[in-house]
Each structure stands twice: as C-alpha cells, then as structure tokens.
Write a structure and sequence with these properties.
- Its main location: membrane.
- It is a multi-pass membrane protein.
- Pfam families: 7tm_4 (PF13853).
- By secondary structure, this protein is mainly α.
- It has a single domain, classed as Up-down Bundle (Rhopdopsin 7-helix transmembrane proteins).
- 80% of the residues lie in helices and 3% in strands.
- Strands 2-1-3 form a three-stranded mixed sheet.
- The longest helix is centred in the last third of the chain and has 39 residues.
- The protein is globular, with a radius of gyration of 25 Å.
- The relative contact order is 0.12.
- The structure holds 2-acetamido-2-deoxy-beta-D-glucopyranose.
- The site of 2-acetamido-2-deoxy-beta-D-glucopyranose has 10 residues, from helix 2, helix 3 and helix 6.
Length: 337
C-alpha cells in the first residue's frame, strides 16, 4: 500500500508562481506600475549609496549604516521585482524548484540582515542621544565595520542552515504557489517529506535573528525616548529627536507591515489581502526608505544639493570646453582660408 502510494506521487521539478491573476489590460497596467516603482527605488537608493561613499560630510557611522541599508534595498527589490516584471511581460509563470529556493534564500537573508541592520542603527542612535560625550569613542570605524559585517553575515549564514534542510525536501505538488515570490509557508505546503525538523530550525532562526533585533531596537528606543523627555527645553527635545525620527519612521513601517502580514491567518479566503499587504514590505519599504531619509534629513539634503551642483558645474565646464573648441576651429578655418 505504502509503495503504491509512493509510486503515485510525482516529484515536482517546477513551480508555477501564480502572481497577480488579472485581465491582460490590467496586467499591462501592473507592469507599468511595478516598472516605475522599480526605477524609482533603484534611483533613490543608488543616489544614497553614492552620496554616502563620495561625500566626506557623510562619513559618519549613521550614514555608513544607511548606505548599507540602501545597498540591501537595491538587492532586495531586484530579487523580487525583476522576476515579477519578467513574468508580467512574458506571461511565463514557471520557475524551477532550485530557482525558487534560491529566490527564497536571497529574500529571507536580506530580510534577516535588514532586521539586524535596523537594530544596529538604533543602537547607534541610542549612543548618540544617551551617551553623546562617549560617541566617538564608542562608535569607532572598527566597531562600525564589525557591526555592519556581522549583520550581513548573520543574515546569510542563518538562512543557509534553513536552506540546507529545504534542499532535502521532495515536493510532490500541487505545483502552484499563490504568491508573486517564493515564500517559506507556500513552499512548505507543497512538500511531502517530514518537515518537523525544518520547522523547528526555521523557528529558532527567525526567533534569534528577527525577534531579538526587534527587541533590541525597541529597548534602544525606550531609552532614547526617556532621555529625550528629560531634556528641559522644547527646542532641545526637538533637536535630539530629529536625529532619530527618520530611522524611527522606517523601523515602524518595516516591523508594522511585517507584523500585520504575519497576523493575517493563512486561509485561502484571506490570500488576496495577504498578497496586497506583503506588497507593502516587499515593494513599498525599499521605495520609501530613501525618500524618508532624503526629505527629512538636513545633511542628506545638503549633500544631494552639493552633488547636483558638482554635476551641473561639470556639465557647464564641458559646455564651455566645446565652445572653446568651436572657437579654435573657426580660428583655424580662418587661417586656412
Ligand atoms: C557599510 O558599512 C561599512 C562599515 O561601517 C562601511 O565601511 C561601508 O562604506 C558601508 N557601505 C556603504 C555602501 O555605505
């Protein structure tokens, strides 16, 4: 009996990512919306990385971490949106099992890294506001580098353990994943192996590398808020708080949407709601982060202006150079004539 059952099961080597199933016209509209989202996301985050790397005024821990965050968002939205755009324009929904696992690996590692980076950034703000006199001693370049690399390493290593276990699974179908990217839950639903160990390991990893950073972030902000409230003058309060308000907005948005998505029960009737909400943290956060930082932060704004001034002056000199060449040519012609 067991043997015949085994024979009846076909092993799947390809998944079908259903994505957003709509009419063809709407499909085109979706493509355009996501394409513009992708372009703006890439432009904003690339600008931030360029500013942080090239502008000496931004060579401070807070901006190093911000640059790392923007780098991360570039990878993240490329992993999700490029595949989605390709599928929207070609109509190709199939994806090999290994491709799907690879996509999940990238997405999960980047989410984990983002949690760690956000907590490192809140620790940096905690030192800046609660221990301002020791800031330069505590936040040296070496420590910064270690914290940033630790975030990246822990994200990619922790999820690698989960991936090793996922690779052992056989998938028997059905082969349809009702999502627009390869996520953990839908992937497990299609397996026909014993996944208890995998579930335990995944729980431990997500607990360690997202809940603990979340709690650390929360604790940092509790300290920051109590310190800010103790400042007697309103102007002083505002000044202290303005240095961390952008980060607080980003953190709230990020964890807020993550929590909402995981609170929505995993029932088929709510699948559509879930899809829409997961758009928030997969597509919208990478888009919004650079906007929040560049509109709210004076130093980033000034740095952007400097960059554009530099660019326009470069263009200006090139123009005058061409004029110069033109004049010389005319003079030469004059001589030749
Ligand atoms: C990431 O952080 C490290 C360490 O602080 C820093 O040296 C590096 O420049 C950052 N990367 C970007 C793109 O900002």
């Amino acid at each position: 009996m067991a043997i015949t059952e085994w024979k009846n099961q076909t092993i799947i080597t390809e998944f079908i990512l259903l994505g957003f199933e709509t009419s063809p016209q709407f499909q085109t509209l979706l493509f355009l919306v996501f394409l513009s989202t992708y372009i703006i996301t890439m432009a904003g985050n690339t600008l931030l990385v360029v500013l942080v790397v090239s502008d000496r005024h931004l060579h401070k821990p807070m901006y190093y971490f911000l640059g790392n965050l923007s780098c991360l968002e570039i990878f993240y939205s490329s992993t999700i949106l490029l595949r989605m755009l390709a599928s929207l324009i070609t109509g190709e929904k199939r994806l090999s099992v290994n491709g799907c696992i690879a996509q999940f690996y990238l997405i999960a590692s980047l989410v984990t890294t983002e949690c760690c980076l956000l907590s490192v950034m809140s620790y940096d703000r905690y030192i800046a506001i609660c221990k301002p006199l020791n800031y330069t001693v505590l936040m040296q370049d070496g420590l910064c580098c270690q914290l940033a690399s630790l975030s990246w390493l822990s994200g990619f290593l922790a999820i690698a353990i989960v991936i090793v276990l996922i690779m052992q699974i056989t998938f028997c179908g059905p082969s349809e994943i009702d999502s627009y990217f390869c996520d953990f839950g839908p992937l497990l639903n299609l397996s026909c192996s014993d996944i208890i160990l995998l579930k335990i390991v995944a729980f431990i990893c997500s607990f360690t590398f997202s809940l603990i950073p979340f709690l650390l972030t929360l604790i940092s902000y509790v300290y920051i808020v109590t310190t800010v409230l103790k400042i007697p003058s309103t102007a002083g309060k505002q000044k202290a708080f303005s240095t961390c308000s952008s980060h607080l907005i980003v953190v709230t948005l990020y964890y807020g949407t993550l929590i909402v998505v995981y609170m929505i029960p995993d029932t088929p009737s709510l699948n559509y709601t879930n899809k829409i909400f997961s758009l928030f943290y997969t597509v919208l956060t990478p888009l919004i982060n650079p906007l929040i930082y560049s509109f709210r932060n004076k130093e980033v704004k000034e740095s952007t202006q400097r960059l554009f001034r530099k660019c326009s002056s470069l263009v200006g000199t090139r123009k005058s150079e061409t004029n110069h060449v033109f004049i010389i040519k005319r003079k030469n012609r004059h001589v030749l004539n």
